[in-house]
Amino acid sequence: MYLYHFTLEQTNPKTSRQMHRFCTLFNNCEVKLRVTKTVFISVHITGKYRGRVFEDREVGFVLGEGSEVGVVEGVEIGLRRFTCNEKARLRVVSMLAYGHEGCPQYDIPPDADLDYEVTLLDYVKVCHWLSIAVSE
User: Fold this and answer.
1) What SS3 class is residue 117?
2) Residue 104: pLDDT above 90?
3) Which of 47, 88, 99, 133 has its CA 20 to 30 A from that of 121?
4) What is the CA radius of gyration of the chain?
5) What backbone phi and psi angles, to 5 degrees, belong to 116?
6) 96 with 73: CB under 8 angstroms?
7) Which CATH number fits domain 2-125: 3.10.50.40, 3.40.640.10, 3.40.50.300, 3.90.550.10?
8) With helix as H, strand as E and coil as C, how does 7-38 read?
9) Domain extent listing, the chain
């Protein structure tokens, strides 16, 4: 097990004020493989608002399609920088989370910044198959 020192890392240079990965906590992988689009990822997500846990679950999805399973955009942006079995804390600003609407389901008010602890459990490259139906 490797323990990394705490660092502040910009996850996207174009939006440097919007999203930061605060620290990498642990990494159990000897081989580091970066997550890219067209991969199915399995993650464990713990979301907090002002210290209160509002979400704690394991979920799988194709990177870029996390909104279909309720994963906020900011977490997906952060996951693009993860390696296998990496665990990190993310601070996600409101515009990359629930925005001006908030989330009544989780009792998140409008314009709330959120903290997440995310672990990339596994990922698999997605192969896209095209099926064409031929009519006679």
Assistant:
1) strand
2) yes
3) 99
4) 16
5) -130, 145
6) yes
7) 3.10.50.40
8) CCEECCHHHCCCEEEEEEEEECCCCCCCCCCC
9) 2-125
